[in-house]
Amino acid sequence: MNVSHATLILGLLVAGSLAVAGTSEGAPDTAPAASSTALVGDARAGKATFTEYCSICHGVGAKGFIGPYIAGINWTTPGLHAIVRGGVGGYGGMPAFNADAVTDKNIADIAAYLAVLPPETPPQASPSPSPTAAPAIAASAPVSPKPVATPAAMSTASAAPAVALGDPVHGHQIYTENCAACHGASAQGGVGPSLRGERNRKDTAAAIAWIKNPKLPMPKLYPNPLSEKDVDDVAAYVESL
Prior knowledge:
By secondary structure, the protein is mainly α. The chain is built from 10 helices and no strands. The longest helix has 23 residues, at 3-25.
């Protein structure tokens, strides 16, 4: 082997050593994973994730059910991330979801999906009807005397009950099937408030009216799946607690 060949081989060996050293001691081969705050969400993927994990409480299209109406809110990814990871306690509480169930990318996708939905529109108040003047009574028109209630008529009127009584036994069954998931098996409270002592807050008529036309986050169950009789009966059961 002559001197020029030896010099060439030595040069190649030194260059190879430097290349290996640069790979093992220099910058890493791959860039670090992007921060969750920098993730860009995909609304279409977010809809699928929301439907799977969130719609059971927040309703289809995030329009509210057990949980509140959250459509049309321009969530920041860090803000939604904190809620999903930490949960929300108290009335209407939301459980925490770890990264095994909902990933950081899932959260960014959900935020993008919620942002493109229409926001909640507050109900419009019905315009008050314009007062109309009572027609004037002609001076010549005879005035009919007011009828006088007789004792028989008074006793008949007082005999009619103001509110039909429900069956609390059947109402307990209806409660177990439709209400216990939120208010607790013994009405002790859970996601929804306790109904113990509800008779001190609402009479039977008010309880029936509330069940028929509740306010969010309580779902509306009348007239389907609850019938008129079901409502009367479950109201009677709640009033008996």
